[in-house]
Design brief:
heterodimer; B: 214 residues; mainly alpha
């Protein structure tokens, strides 16, 4: 800007300077030329008079700075005060002399060969016809200019300096309001009118940028909200292993603190498996890993992100697979247990049948063997029934019809069903309480209460009691089965709901049962959104509560 | 130039985290080997110890290169010098873990290790190491200070183990096992001390103040 202004002012200054010099010189030169001619004329007239009266003597005594030449009528030079007349050529053809011969006076201007001089000639005719000519030289403009070069140069330099200083100051003054512009709020600025369209444009662009920023932020928030609400952990890495993005699920699953921005992913976790996974994925290998962290089992799914065959980052997804693993383990155990439980009575049946087939049984013992076989097969049937029951509950069969069921009535029905057993065990069972209605599958509810009562009777002392109490609570209610039996040790209280779990494995055969009863209760309760509570003191008895929700 | 320097610093950081992780792994392997008599894990602890030694040399070279070629100043210089000190502590932790694994291998029985609060000691020591490495990873000054407090607990546990072992010897238990256990307890106590050192160097790299400097 400064340079441009400087250049402009220089051009202006120089052209004004040159023009004025040219004008000045031209006018002056012209003026001086005229002046010189007049002077020469009057001088020529004077000299002519002198020569006419005194002849050659006058000329010889004359002391003039200008050149004086006396030319005869035929053009021969009679006298010249600056050269030898003998050497001079005939002057008859000179313009001024011819003019003087024709008229009485003549004048001419001639440039010297080098153009550096301009000579004015004035001629005057004497009465005898000869001509006196005066000549005076004048320097040409070029020479004049050259002789003035020094002052001109000085003026030029001064102009340059002035132009520079002024240009600097001017540009500063012009730029100042521009520099003071507040581009954030362009409309509030008070500046050149010429800049107004600019500012409007900037304001519009500001608005656009703001809008786009908002949009971006919104997108980012949406993304964050999405990932935040994932139960899975999510970590995004760049190719050097820096964390670009993560969700709180990842921190929770890895048990890590909030990492510093741009931190290395190892700040989240540094276990061997995790490191291995990260190294692999950043090398471009998709992989899966497993982390065992304080009882939780976390699966890592690591996927590299490619752009043009180069790994530019990675996505780590962390999934809590503790429950899945446990479920799988339980299922495996269940299968193993089922096979075992099914095999035991079958082996007995098969063994006894084989002995009978081989005729090794005395006829009077056949009844005993048959009753054993019957007993074992009954057990087998009960087991299979229980398993079918459980698997139905597992599937969460919805096609079972839900109907309002009176729990007190149901408890009484169960008491009636179980009566033979209680008598056999020498246990008294009493049902008490007030009725309440559960919207549920009555066969499942009955099975649940039956199983609880069955356990209460089976694991009771002879002469013990079982109390079934039904009490409404809000829209729901509680069914409580309390016995005075052997109780469950504290360490087993959680596990009795597992399939096939038996507290006392060695005596399970005597007592009978399949080990699936409480499991059925648990699943049935889950189907009805009910809670199961168990309180037990070894040696004193057990209380199991089925709490149906109040809503 | 600066960029590559920052990159190298970060690389150093990552390597330190890895070395810390190796230490944690080595102690837990050694502890499991001791308490559960898992000989394979004992072997793992010894392998890890060698890996830790390697890492120490690697990081040392890295630090030297950084110091000589980049001539870091202020915070960066502190970070590098703290790293140099930390790796020697980590290396000692690895040694002690391997020593524990060795004792565990040669010990005649492990019953007594469960009667004295050795598991608690191990847990406390492991937590100290974990916390000190965490403090480094996160640049968490408060956590570094926590480590200093946890050390008192480990010292307390050591005294307790020692007294219980004396009582056991007096009650006629196997003396050599008791002495082995005392050694193990001492190793755990030393691991705690090294964790404290690491925490102190973390503090130094963060604040520029170190206990030994004051």
């Amino acid at each position: 800007m400064t340079a441009k202004i400087f250049r402009n002012s220089m051009v202006v200054g120089l052209s004004v300077f040159l023009l004025s010099v040219a004008l000045f010189m031209g006018v002056l030169y012209q003026y001086f030329g005229t002046q010189l001619t007049q002077e020469l004329q009057s001088e020529a007239v004077l000299v002519a008079r002198g020569v006419e009266s005194m002849g050659m003597d006058y000329l010889e005594n004359l002391n003039l700075s200008n050149r004086v030449t006396w030319v005869d009528t035929d053009g021969t030079v009679l006298y010249d005060n600056q050269a030898d007349p003998a050497t001079m050529e005939n002057h008859g053809d000179r313009v001024e002399i011819q003019e003087a011969m024709w008229g009485s006076q003549g004048s001419a201007v001639r440039y010297s060969e080098t153009l550096s001089e301009k000579t004015f000639y004035v001629a005057c005719r004497l009465s005898d016809g000869s001509v006196i000519r005066m000549a005076s030289a004048q320097y040409t403009i070029v020479v004049l200019l050259l002789s003035m070069a020094q002052p001109l140069l000085i003026i030029l330099v001064v102009t340059l300096i002035l132009a520079a200083v002024l240009a600097n100051r001017l540009s500063k003054r012009m730029i100042k309001p521009i520099l003071e512009l507040d581009l954030e709020h362009p409309e509030e600025c008070n500046t050149y009118d010429e800049l107004a369209p600019f500012l409007t444009r900037i304001r519009r662009q500001n608005d656009t940028i703001k809008g786009q920023m908002n949009l971006l932020r919104q997108r980012q928030e949406e993304f964050a909200a999405l990932t935040e609400n994932m139960s899975e952990g999510f970590v995004l890495l760049d190719q050097r292993g820096h964390i670009l993005s993560y969700n709180s699920g990842a921190l929770r699953l890895l048990g890590a603190a909030i990492p510093a921005p741009e931190a290395n992913v190892l700040a989240l976790d540094r276990t061997d498996a995790f490191r291995h996974s990260v190294e692999q994925v950043l090398a471009g290998c998709r992989n899966q890993g497993r982390l065992d962290r304080s009882g939780r089992c976390v699966q890592i799914l690591a996927d590299p992100v490619f752009r043009d065959k180069d790994v530019v980052g990675a996505v780590l997804v962390l999934v809590d697979i503790t429950e899945r693993e446990q479920g799988e383990k339980m299922r495996r155990e269940f299968t193993a247990n089922v096979s075992h439980e099914l095999k035991t009575p079958l082996t007995a049946i098969s063994g006894m049948a084989e002995i009978m087939k081989n005729g090794m049984v005395k006829p009077e013992d056949v009844t005993g063997f048959a009753s054993d076989i019957y007993k074992e097969s009954q057990r087998l049937i009960a087991l299979v029934e229980d398993i079918i029951h459980l698997s139905r509950l597992d599937e969460g069969e919805d096609d079972l019809k839900r109907e309002p069921t009176d729990m007190l009535e149901l408890a009484k029905k169960v008491a009636g069903r179980i009566d033979p057993l209680t008598k056999q065990a020498g246990v008294s069972l009493a049902v008490a309480g007030a009725p309440f209605i559960v919207q549920g599958i009555s066969s499942v509810l009955e099975e649940m209460v039956y199983n609880l009562c069955d356990n209460a009777v089976k694991y009771n002392h002879a002469g013990g009691t079982v109390a079934v109490s039904v009490s409404p609570k809000g829209k729901g209610g509680v069914v409580e089965v309390t016995d005075t039996g052997i109780g469950i040790p504290i360490q087993d209280q959680q596990r009795v709901f597992e399939r096939f779990y038996r507290v006392d494995k060695s005596h399970s055969k005597e007592i009978g049962g399949t080990g699936l009863g409480l499991s059925i209760v648990k699943h049935g309760a889950a189907l009805h959104d009910a809670q199961v509570e168990l309180e037990s003191t070894p040696g004193q008895g057990t209380t199991v509560r089925l709490i149906f929700p109040e809503e | 130039m600066r960029n590559s320097f920052n990159e190298q610093l970060e690389q150093l950081n990552v390597e330190l985290i890895k070395m810390g992780a190796l230490c944690e792994e080595a102690i837990s392997a050694a502890t499991k080997a001791l308490l559960e008599r898992d000989l394979q894990l004992g072997e793992r602890a010894r392998v890890l110890e060698q890996e830790i030694d390697h890492k120490e040399r690697d990081i040392e070279t890295q630090c030297m290169k950084l110091l000589l070629r980049q001539q870091p100043v202020a915070g960066d210089l502190r970070a590098v010098s703290a790293a140099l000190r930390m790796i020697s502590d980590m290396e000692r932790i690895g040694d002690q873990a391997s020593d524990i694994a060795e004792i565990a291998r040669d010990m005649e029985e492990s019953r007594l290790s469960r009667t004295v609060p050795m598991a608690e000691m191990a847990r406390a020591a492991i937590r100290m190491v974990t916390d000190s490495v965490d403090a480094f990873v996160r640049g968490d000054l408060a956590l570094a200070h926590d480590v200093l407090r946890e050390d008192d607990q480990v010292d307390q546990l050591f005294l307790q183990v020692r007294e219980e072992l004396i009582a056991l010897i007096a009650a006629g238990e196997n003396g050599s096992v008791c002495l082995d256990l005392l050694m193990v307890a001492k190793y755990f106590e030393r691991i705690g001390d090294h964790a404290v050192n690491i925490a102190e160097w973390v503090e130094y790299s963060l604040t520029g103040a170190h206990k030994s400097v004051e």
